[in-house]
C-alpha cells in the first residue's frame, strides 16, 4: 500500500515538472514560465505543466491557432506569439484563457481573427495586434475589455473603424492606430473628434492619415476638413400606375421610397407577405424592368421590381401580395425606415365600415390624409390611416360619404373598380 502511495506521488511530481521537449520550463520571479521561442515550431507543442503562467512561442513558424490550442494552460497570464506566420486564429483558440493579462500577436499575417474570444478575457491589460493584415474590427470586439490599458493596432489594413469601438475601454491609456489605410469618408469623422477629445495617449498622429479619397490622400486625420455628412432619411409614398385610367384587377402597385443622406444610402426592401418574407437589395432590375445579372430571380421579370431610383413595382398586385412593405436606407452614419401595410378587400367586408367611420371622423377634424399628384401622404405623424375606395362601375360607395349625396369626404380618393385598397403608412 505504501508503494502505491509513493508511485502516485512520483507520477504527480513528474506531471508537475513535465515540459515539451523543445521548450524550457521553470520558475522565475514567482512565475511558472515555459519558453518555446526561437524553436522553429510549426504547431503549439503538447505537454505543458498545468500551472504555467507565462508562455512564449515567439519567433517560430506557427501558421495558425486552432480551437483549444491552450487548453492545457488555463492559468496562463502572459502569452507571447509575435513574429510567427499566423494567418488564422480560430474560435475557441483563446477563449479558455480567462486569467490572461498580456497577449502579443504582433508581426504575424493575421487576417481572420475570432474576435468573440476576447469577450472572455475580461482581465486583459495589454493587447498587441500591430503589424498584421487585419481589415475589419467589429464594433463590439472590445466590449468586455474594461481592464485594457494598452492597445496596439498600428500597421494593419484597416480602412475604417465603427463609431463606439473604443467606448468600452474605460481603463485605456495608450492606443496605437497609425499606419492604416483609412478611407476618410463620413464614417471616420467620429474618430477624428474622439481622438482630439480623449485623454488616451495616441502617438504618431501625423501617421494616422487618409489613403482615400485621392484628394485627401496623406492628410492626417487630425487635420481632416469638414465633410458634408448626413444620416439617411426616407419618405415612402404610393402612386397608382395608371393615372386617370380605370383600374382593373391585377393593376400594378407602385411604391416610391424617397431617400436622402450623405454619403448616398443603400436602399433595401423588406417585404412580409402571406407566403413569407422577401428581402431585396435595390436595385434588382434595370430601367427596362428585367433582372440585373447576378440577381436571384425565377424569371427575367421579378415579381417585385426594385429600381435604382427608389421605386418598387408589383405587377399584377393581388391578395398574394398583401402585407407590409418596408424600405430601409443605410449609410455610414445610421439608418432610417418607413413602412406601408397593404390589404385588399371587396366592398361590403366587415372592416370597411369601421375603417370608413375612422377615416370620416378624421376628415371632419381636418386630419387624415391628402393627395398630391395622386401620391397619398399622411397629414401628420399621428394620422396614419389612408383609405382609397375603388368603386363599382365608377359609382362612389356612399357608406362613408355622409352629407351631400355623391360628395366625398375631404381626402378620399376614388378610383374605378370593385376593390377596396387600404394603406396604413407608418414611419420609424
UniProtKB/TrEMBL annotation:
Alphabetized UniProt keyword annotations: Disulfide bond, Glycoprotein, Immunoglobulin domain, Leucine-rich repeat, Repeat, Secreted, Signal
Subcellular localization(s) per the UniProt record: Secreted
Protein origin, superkingdom: Eukaryota
GO CC annotations, alphabetized: extracellular region
InterPro entries, A to Z: Cys-rich_flank_reg_C (IPR000483), Ig-like_dom (IPR007110), Ig-like_dom_sf (IPR036179), Ig-like_fold (IPR013783), Ig_sub2 (IPR003598), Leu-rich_rpt (IPR001611), Leu-rich_rpt_typical-subtyp (IPR003591), LRR_dom_sf (IPR032675)
Limits of the Ig-like domain: 232-343
Residues making up the signal peptide according to the UniProt record: 1-18
SMART domains in UniProt: IGc2, LRR_TYP, LRRCT
Name assigned to this protein: Immunoglobulin superfamily containing leucine-rich repeat protein
Organism whose genome encodes this protein: Rhinopithecus bieti (Black snub-nosed monkey)
Amino acid at each position: 500500500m505504501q508503494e502505491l502511495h509513493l508511485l502516485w506521488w512520483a507520477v504527480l511530481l513528474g506531471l508537475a515538472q513535465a515540459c515539451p521537449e523543445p521548450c524550457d520550463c521553470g520558475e522565475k520571479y514567482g512565475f511558472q514560465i515555459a519558453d518555446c521561442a526561437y524553436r522553429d515550431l510549426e504547431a503549439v507543442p503538447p505537454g505543458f505543466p498545468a500551472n504555467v503562467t507565462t508562455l512564449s512561442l515567439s519567433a517560430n513558424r506557427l501558421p495558425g491557432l486552432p480551437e483549444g490550442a491552450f487548453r492545457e494552460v488555463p492559468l496562463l497570464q502572459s502569452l507571447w506569439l509575435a513574429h510567427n506566420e499566423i494567418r488564422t486564429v480560430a474560435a475557441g483558440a483563446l477563449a479558455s484563457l480567462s486569467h490572461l493579462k498580456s497577449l502579443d500577436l504582433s508581426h504575424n499575417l493575421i487576417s481572420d481573427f475570432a474576435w468573440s474570444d476576447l469577450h472572455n478575457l475580461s482581465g486583459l491589460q495589454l493587447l498587441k495586434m500591430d503589424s498584421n493584415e487585419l481589415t475589419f474590427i467589429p464594433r463590439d470586439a472590445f466590449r468586455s475589455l474594461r481592464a485594457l490599458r494598452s492597445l496596439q493596432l498600428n500597421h494593419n489594413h484597416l480602412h475604417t473603424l465603427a463609431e463606439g469601438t473604443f467606448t468600452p475601454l474605460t481603463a485605456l491609456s495608450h492606443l496605437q492606430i497609425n499606419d492604416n489605410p483609412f478611407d476618410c469618408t463620413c464614417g471616420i469623422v467620429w474618430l477624428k473628434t474622439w481622438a482630439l477629445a480623449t485623454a488616451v495617449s495616441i502617438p504618431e498622429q501625423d501617421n494616422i492619415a487618409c489613403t482615400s479619397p485621392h484628394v485627401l490622400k496623406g492628410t492626417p486625420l487630425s487635420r481632416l476638413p469638414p465633410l458634408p455628412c448626413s444620416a439617411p432619411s426616407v419618405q415612402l409614398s404610393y402612386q397608382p400606375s395608371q393615372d386617370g385610367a380605370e383600374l382593373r384587377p391585377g393593376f400594378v402597385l407602385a411604391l416610391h421610397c424617397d431617400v436622402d443622406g450623405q454619403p448616398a444610402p443603400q436602399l433595401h426592401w423588406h417585404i412580409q407577405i402571406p407566403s413569407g418574407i422577401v428581402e431585396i437589395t435595390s436595385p434588382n432590375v434595370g430601367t427596362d424592368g428585367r433582372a440585373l445579372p447576378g440577381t436571384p430571380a425565377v424569371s427575367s421579370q421579378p415579381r417585385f421590381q426594385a429600381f435604382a431610383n427608389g421605386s418598387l413595382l408589383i405587377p399584377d398586385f393581388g391578395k398574394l401580395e398583401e402585407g407590409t412593405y418596408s424600405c430601409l436606407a443605410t449609410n455610414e452614419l445610421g439608418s432610417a425606415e418607413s413602412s406601408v401595410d397593404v390589404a385588399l378587400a371587396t366592398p361590403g367586408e366587415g372592416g370597411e365600415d369601421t375603417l370608413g367611420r375612422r377615416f370620416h371622423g378624421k376628415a371632419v377634424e381636418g386630419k387624415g390624409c391628402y393627395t398630391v399628384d395622386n401620391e397619398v401622404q399622411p397629414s401628420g405623424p399621428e394620422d396614419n390611416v389612408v383609405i382609397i375606395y375603388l368603386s363599382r362601375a365608377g359609382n362612389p360607395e356612399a357608406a362613408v360619404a355622409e352629407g351631400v349625396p355623391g360628395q366625398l369626404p375631404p381626402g378620399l380618393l376614388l378610383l374605378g373598380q370593385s376593390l377596396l385598397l387600404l394603406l396604413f403608412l407608418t414611419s420609424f
